[in-house]
Give the backbone structure.
Amino acid sequence: MTIQSTPRSFAPPSSHEMPEAVQNALERVESLMLEVVDSEVTVLRDASRHILSAGGKRVRQRLTLLAYTAVGGSDPERAAPVAAAVELVHTASVVHDDINDHGIVRRGRPSINAIWGRTFALLTGDFLFTKVYELMAPYKDLNIILADATVALVEGETLQASAVKANNFTREVYNRIIALKTAALFRAAGELGGRLANGAPEYVEAIANFGYSIGLAFQIVDDVLDLTGDTEQLGKTAGVDLEQGRGFASTYENDADAAEQEAEADVVTSLKEKILQGDAINEAHEQANRLVKMAIAYLDVLPASEAKDSLIDLAHQIVERSY
Amino acid sequence: MTIQSTPRSFAPPSSHEMPEAVQNALERVESLMLEVVDSEVTVLRDASRHILSAGGKRVRQRLTLLAYTAVGGSDPERAAPVAAAVELVHTASVVHDDINDHGIVRRGRPSINAIWGRTFALLTGDFLFTKVYELMAPYKDLNIILADATVALVEGETLQASAVKANNFTREVYNRIIALKTAALFRAAGELGGRLANGAPEYVEAIANFGYSIGLAFQIVDDVLDLTGDTEQLGKTAGVDLEQGRGFASTYENDADAAEQEAEADVVTSLKEKILQGDAINEAHEQANRLVKMAIAYLDVLPASEAKDSLIDLAHQIVERSY
């Protein structure tokens, strides 16, 4: 397995340019994240920068900055600290995920777990979670939005682990998991951007719903890619979901009562083939496409703008991506 | 090994009564913590309540409520959410500690790790850390104080793990570790209480310094007890520090260049005997007593009150405790 060591950008060709002010704010978010994780305890700084500088898709921070701009905000750099906080919640959660899943590749690099070991990975995740609240401290009314979304994320991860353990990974449970672990933070990312710009309540509501819907679509596509992609292409350890008895495809197995919780490698391969021949992948893509369509419809209330066009692009990129 | 299953209170006989309003507020903190960890994801609720209802010494929340009252606050229940947040930071950190240290007993009960396993212990710790910020969300100016103290706590834990790994657990490193991992949160506990009551700046400063000093003393005594106590008496897995090559006593070993990082059980026993015969324990007690004396001196600027007397009691209890 070759591990790609250079960060990759998540930007399929699109018909619209991202507004320049948003581009600049995105760069500010990157530098802010690297600054905020500075620490005299070098392992925390190094491990944090290792994962942050690897890139990642940065969907959530883009969502916050574009939401801010699309509802009328004039200076997206003002939203950079909050966008950084949103992205750090996600980053902290993947660091802890890689402990629980024994993931050894993340964002095209060896995971923190793989390089520094479990103890330091756990502490680095805690460090990142805590840095979120240093960043959010000045935003009194907005704090609760991100705190609630982070609670939902942890609840979703826990529900997932519980469902795997209890072997009841049904479609209904799956839908609840992706709403909690992914869509809640996407919703918050949109809402926070909208609120920071003092957007009209109907605009903020629209952008929050947009975030929620693309969040669901994002997770469904992620689960499909976990199944169909390989580790090099995805930039993270592939096949984890099926191996762990979870993800979109696992609901098929359980619904068909054919799951083996502790599947061996060859069992995984044969299940994978079965699922790839079946309707699961197509169905997942259809569901993701429906969600993206719905998400874009929420934006109808917003006035036309470059930022609105970029949000629509973002929604399309989520379903069209190959990693 | 018998595991005590009933919560124990940390209240050696003292010469002063805790003010009644503070007693009531302490009860409010307990119920608030149990309420705030409610979740539809039952494992998070159950694991959180398991550790919270086991009691613990509750030094930090008492410090916050007494600080609030001692600087002139009239309704300590107002400080209950912040006191609960401070206590939850500590609780989250011990849940994660028990993963890294393989601790199987905590607060006289099996640890979350021991009952629910590593994955759920990790997620429960994340859940508790996040609930802290739900509780703190309304307190704009105070958020940064607790966030900074939590960052320090994580840095202290990390520095400790790094020092063990690098085998450079010197007295200087030890002092830095206990300042970060314990004294910073004690300082914040005092400062937050003082600020919530809008105490005069010199009162708030005094109570913050008091917290810092008793925090250092608390950790030193804790490390001595880890060495001299047994698991039943302490209510948590004893001997962890020495086994892991850290704590007050380990600075002796390293200074004497006699440490074996991966000590076997019999090596631990012989080291323990050596240390118990040496000066380390006495020296640690003297240091803790000096710190407590200094802490009490900080309180000189505060007007006489029941709450002030209770703070002085608290400081004495910290060095006189046997668990």
In short: Confidence is low (pLDDT under 50) at residues 1-9, 255-264 of chain B. The beta strands of chain B are 105-106, 109-110.
